Amino acid sequence: AQKVTQAQTEISVVEKEDVTLDCVYETRDTTYYLFWYKQPPSGELVFLIRRNSFDEQNEISGRYSWNFQKSTSSFNFTITASQVVDSAVYFCALSEAEVYSGGGADGLTFGKGTHLIIQP
Amino acid sequence: DTAVSQTPKYLVTQMGNDKSIKCEQNLGHDTMYWYKQDSKKFLKIMFSYNNKELIINETVPNRFSPKSPDKAHLNLHINSLELGDSAVYFCASSRERNSYNEQFFGPGTRLTVL
């Protein structure tokens, strides 16, 4: 079965520091998709990025960047020059392309989240 | 306009009661989902619903039942509420039942069972 591990429960850094959130996944499928979501203190879930298993190019969006490495089954997220507004819980998630059989609901499999605290 | 909306935002009720949470999406999406986020922030899929096909996570008690009056709505009914049902429940939708599509989440409903 698929699994997503975010080993860092909580990270606290001072504003303007760079910070990397780790995500390691397990899947039997050869085609799958990885996602990052942000959950700010207000509670909503905000989509950040999607990456498919055949595209290992790193992606940069402003201060955010993602490093996908199939060899280590990792999809890490880096925030450069962190800001207080980046404080949130960040979730990594996995979705398998093949129809899930065996009684489970298809949908995202989430990691347990990393609580990022940016101190001013 | 809110893409995925849920009502109520907060729900406090007594053990043993029956309650419903409503979800509506105005994105024209084909697939909707319910997730449960527990007190440790762990998010877990409960149901997915697509073209009248309901897929249930095997760990969900049968006290929980989704009801879809039309493609834009997927309501969650919970019978005989228990203390352990206290959580935040998120509705989500995606364009298709396809693992590629990102899911858009509602604002969540915080359920407290006393």
- What amount of the residues of chain A lies in strands? over 45%
Assembly context of the chains: heterodimer
| End-to-end C-alpha gap of chain B | 34 Å
Structural class of chain B: mainly beta
Radius of gyration of chain B from the CA trace? 13 Å
Count of DSSP E strands of chain A? 12
The rounded Rg of chain A comes to 14 Å
% residues in beta strands of chain B = over 45%
Main β-sheet of chain B: number of strands, strand sense, barrel status?
7 strands, mixed
Q: What value does the average pLDDT of chain A take? A: 90
Give the uncertain stretches of chain B in residue-range form.
none
Helix content of chain B: under 10%
Characterise the protein shown here:
- The complex is a heterodimer of chains A (120) and B (114).
- With 120 residues, chain A is mainly β.
- Helix content of chain A is 0%, strand content 51%.
- Chain A contains no helices and 12 strands.
- Chain A is globular.
- Chain A starts with a strand and ends with a strand.
- About 4% of the residues of chain A have low confidence.
- With 114 residues, chain B is mainly beta.
- In chain B, 0% of the residues lie in helices and 50% in strands.
- In chain B, strand 5 and strand 6 form a beta hairpin.
- The model of chain B has no long low-confidence stretch (mean pLDDT 91).
